[in-house]
């Protein structure tokens, strides 16, 4: 693979990733609040109304900067790798990008759940966690993040290529914006289906107070399973699926269009 091709994948992946983040962050906030809530009756619309009612639409974008800053290198890495071998490369990229994803998502979730009070700045929150509690706390939840992202990214890129090939009969001249968006949306939903339980546990681990005793991922999974039953592992599923399709549809469409533009 030539350096020019790598640069194209990196740039297209970054642009597509940021577009997807902005498009899906409001539903990501709803998803995180549903996953970390102990209310059995909380639903997507109820949570959405509660956030908007208490903080306005700005509340839906709490923590937005954190994933933008981290997912630029994350998406650049995974899109740059996936261009060659899809499932194995995607899984490998999922392994590597945890270095960026774990601290970024910890900061994002702390802000989305209000665990840091009235703080709204991702940069300030990240510095505060690092300065007061150290790098170990900043990277809290990296183990379950790893367990989520390795299969998720493998399914993501393998699912996209398989669906795109089926929709276009493997011919580039048959590619349309709608088909690319369909392939991306289906791939996004597939990746979340295989990683949903891990994501719920990760959200709960990373939303814990920074002070006092904290549960590990196994302790969290065991205690919440005992309290809420197997349904705990699929909390926020509706919000996740509602978010997954448009986010991934936008991400892959922008990626493909950027690649075409640079070619």
The total domain count is 1
Q: Count all strands and give the number.
A: 0
In the CATH hierarchy, what is the class? Mainly Alpha
What's the gyration radius in Å?
18 Å
Question: Spans with pLDDT under 50 lasting ≥5 residues?
Answer: none
Bin the strand percentage: under 5%
Mean pLDDT: 89
**Run of helices and strands:** HHHHHHHHHHHH
The largest pleated sheet is described as: none
Q: Which word captures the global form?
A: globular
Reported CATH architecture:
Alpha/alpha barrel
Query: How many separate helices?
Result: 12
Which structural category do the helix and sheet elements fall into? mainly alpha
Q: How far is the first residue's CA from the last residue's CA?
A: 15 Å
Oligomeric grouping of the chains? single chain
CATH topology value: Mitochondrial carrier fold
Helix fraction, binned, reads over 70%
Instruction: Determine the CATH superfamily.
Output: Mitochondrial carrier domain
Key terms:
single chain; 263 residues; mainly alpha; Mitochondrial carrier fold; globular; MCP_transmembrane
Structure summarized in a few sentences:
The chain has twelve helices and no strands. With 263 residues, it is mostly helical.
């Amino acid at each position: 693979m030539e350096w020019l091709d790598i640069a194209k994948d990196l740039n297209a992946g970054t642009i597509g990733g940021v577009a997807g983040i902005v498009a899906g962050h409001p539903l990501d906030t709803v998803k995180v609040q549903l996953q970390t809530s102990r209310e059995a009756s909380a639903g997507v619309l109820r949570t959405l109304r509660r956030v908007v009612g208490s903080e306005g639409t700005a509340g839906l974008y709490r923590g937005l900067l954190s994933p933008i800053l981290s997912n630029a290198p994350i998406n650049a890495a995974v899109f740059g790798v996936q261009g060659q071998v899809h499932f194995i490369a995607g899984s490998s990229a999922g392994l590597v990008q945890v270095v960026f994803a774990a601290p970024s998502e910890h900061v994002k979730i702390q802000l989305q759940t209000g665990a840091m009070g009235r703080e709204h700045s991702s940069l300030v929150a990240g510095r505060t966690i690092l300065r007061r509690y150290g790098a170990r706390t900043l990277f809290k939840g990296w183990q379950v993040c790893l367990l989520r992202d390795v299969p998720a990214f493998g399914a993501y890129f393998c699912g996209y290529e398989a669906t795109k090939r089926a929709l276009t009969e493997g011919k580039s001249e048959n590619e349309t914006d709608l088909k690319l968006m369909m392939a991306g949306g289906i791939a996004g939903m597939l990746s979340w289906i295989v990683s949903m339980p891990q994501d719920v546990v990760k959200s709960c681990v990373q939303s814990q107070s920074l002070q006092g005793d904290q549960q590990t991922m196994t302790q969290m999974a065991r205690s919440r399973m005992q309290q809420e039953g197997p349904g705990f592992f699929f909390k926020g599923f509706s919000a996740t699926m509602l978010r997954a399709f448009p986010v991934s549809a936008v991400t892959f469409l922008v990626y493909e269009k950027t690649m075409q533009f640079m070619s």
